[in-house]
Fold this protein.
Amino acid sequence: MNEHFHVYIAANKTRTVLYTGVTNNLPQRIIEHYLNRGNTRTFTGRYNCYHLLYHESFQYINGAIARKKEIKNLSRRKKSELISAFNPHRQSLNQELFDKWPPDDLFHRKDLE
């Protein structure tokens, strides 16, 4: 079974702001959050949420979207428990996605259009 969709939680450096998202390309999405830092028109840019703390994979988009909605409706405490069960030290998992963080070959998908 191939898993193509990801639900993830990203945070700012101090882990005080959490962002829950869904994507079909987790590494690229984290790069895009990183490239958007400081961009006040986006939530992740405004709060510099590009540190991956948690992720789940799904074969179908419907399952990923349903899980995203479920996580977004959790209390802050329940989200914290979910993250801690997956990532006890709440460290950035960006390094797991890339050989080097930040990677040298940064690009935004919108720039390819």
